[in-house]
């Protein structure tokens, strides 16, 4: 398999963490989707990373689809319960973490790609409200549990860890550590894992 991605994307990081936790071999191809000469559309018509190229040459895209597929390839470090409510709970956590990222990414694009005179303060405020609300729910739902869904490390923790790590990388002004000490404790614990140490976001 070959993973097409970037060193900064939190969605790519999620897939890289899963690949590491599952101990799966893959080639890694860096791609800047914002570059004029990007070729990502040859693999993903949506022009996004991550994109996983399968052994038969077919592409798989969207980090949630890729992560769920990778978890089926080996019983090593199962990240998703087999079925039922437990599995849905993990996927809801993942959707929440990705939703926080979606909103924050939109704010970053507004501020970095759009001329200052064209930027919408109302739009930015709306998206940042989603980030704040998402973080608050994460903290409430985590409570004092060691992991997002209780006592077991799952894809929920991978997704939340990647979201928090990217916020620390791109939005250091958001004091989620001070506001939500339990999220800080979870992130610090996740950051000790080799899979997280090897995938710290970079420019």
Automatic annotation (TrEMBL):
Every GST C-terminal domain range: 83-203
Q: Domain GST N-terminal spans what residues?
A: 1-78
Which UniProt keywords are present, listed alphabetically? Answer: Transferase
Please provide, alphabetically and separated by semicolons, the GO molecular function terms listed in this UniProt record.
glutathione transferase activity; maleylacetoacetate isomerase activity
User: What Pfam families does this protein map onto?
Assistant: GST_C_2, GST_N_2
Family matches, as PROSITE patterns: GST_CTER (PS50405), GST_NTER (PS50404)
One GO biological-process annotation of the entry reads: L-phenylalanine catabolic process
Q: What name does this protein carry?
A: Glutathione S-transferase
């Amino acid at each position: 398999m070959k993973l097409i991605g970037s060193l900064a994307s939190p969605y790519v990081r999620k897939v890289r963490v899963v690949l590491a936790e599952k101990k799966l071999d893959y080639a890694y191809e860096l791609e800047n989707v914002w570059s004029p000469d990007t070729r990502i559309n040859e693999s993903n018509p949506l022009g996004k990373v991550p994109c996983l190229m399968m052994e038969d040459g077919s592409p798989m895209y969207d980090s949630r689809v890729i992560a769920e597929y990778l978890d089926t390839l080996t019983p090593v470090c199962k990240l998703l319960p087999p079925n039922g409510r437990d599995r849905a709970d993990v996927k809801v956590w993942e959707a929440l973490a990705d939703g926080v990222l979606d909103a924050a990414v939109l704010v970053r694009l507004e501020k970095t790609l759009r001329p200052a005179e064209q930027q919408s303060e109302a739009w930015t405020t709306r998206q940042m409200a989603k980030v704040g609300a998402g973080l608050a729910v994460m903290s409430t739902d985590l409570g004092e549990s060691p992991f997002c869904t209780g006592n077991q490390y799952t894809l929920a923790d991978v997704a939340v860890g990647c979201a928090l790590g990217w916020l620390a990388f791109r939005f250091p002004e958001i004091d989620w550590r001070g506001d939500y000490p339990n999220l800080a404790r979870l992130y610090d614990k996740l950051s000790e894992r080799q899979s997280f140490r090897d995938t710290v976001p970079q420019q």
